[in-house]
Design brief:
The protein is an alpha/beta fold. It has 13 helices and 10 strands. Strands 3-4-5-6-7-8-9-10 form an 8-stranded parallel beta sheet. A two-stranded antiparallel ribbon has the order 1-2. Strand 3, helix 1 and strand 4 form a beta-alpha-beta unit. The protein is globular and about 55 Å long.
Length: 330
Amino acid sequence: MQQRILGRTGRPVSVVGLGTWQLGADWGDVSEETAHEVLAAAVEAGVDFFDTADVYGDGRSEQLIARFLGQNPGTEVFVATKMGRRVEQLRENYVMDNFRAWTDRSRKNLAQDTLDLVQLHCPPSAVVESGEVFDALDTLVEEGVMKNYGVSVETCDQALTAIARPAVASVQIILNAFRQKPLDQVLPAAAAAGVGIIARVPLASGLLTGKFTRDTAFAANDHRNYNREGAAFDQGETFSGVDYATGLRAAAEFTELAAALPFEATAAQAALAWIWQLPGVTTVIPGASSAVQARANAAAGLLPELPASFSESVAGMYNEFFRAAIHGRW
């Protein structure tokens, strides 16, 4: 699989990585055996970038990754984790004492003395704007607690603020065919600054697989059931913040576009390839709840260049279904 340098980390990573929120079993049931199979399938398919967080399954995702790597010595995987969602989202909670506690917990969970990359986990804008926060992160790098740090953001404005910080290695942001605002300023700014871009929610919580219908049922603990209006956390994390019915119509059109490609690709694979082939994107991190899904997602990193006509059609679809409703929100 093609690799790109992850911003200021200087490390090459696969253009398709693996998001491991699902492995925490916060939504849907994923056994430890299945989680191990997902991780193994991803690595076998060329994935060498895992994204996790200290709150995914209250540390379960981190621990599963550590066990997998421990059972497979010599496997080279760059592991990015996140911190900050264990407390009320206030600027005053983003302080050194908490940073030390959170990173020490992740170091234990991941069995790493020095963490590869720690990302602030969608913090309030006041945190991203605080020089003191980044001074504290610089100190933790100097002490060897982490090698690099980045910011996972909800909005493009937050992304631009983070990119301007001199030591931010990467920015993680929602980016997919249904959420295209980062193409305007964030991707060019990141490329100019040498900051990596990690694209999350790449399939709009599954809408872009083309497999959902109005009658698709989601479990009670699945955010696609309880967070469609942003009741639990930012609405943009669920179906990329788009209206579900509108998303279904757009997904049907996207599936037709994928079917018309001059090479074989599922809708999901076309959606992932569209993202990683954008200038300025380093890696895209789809989740997977089975080894089959992990392999299929990784295969998107092997697809040839998408035709210009495909990208033009995706832009037209976004303008038709989503621009007026969501482009100004995030």
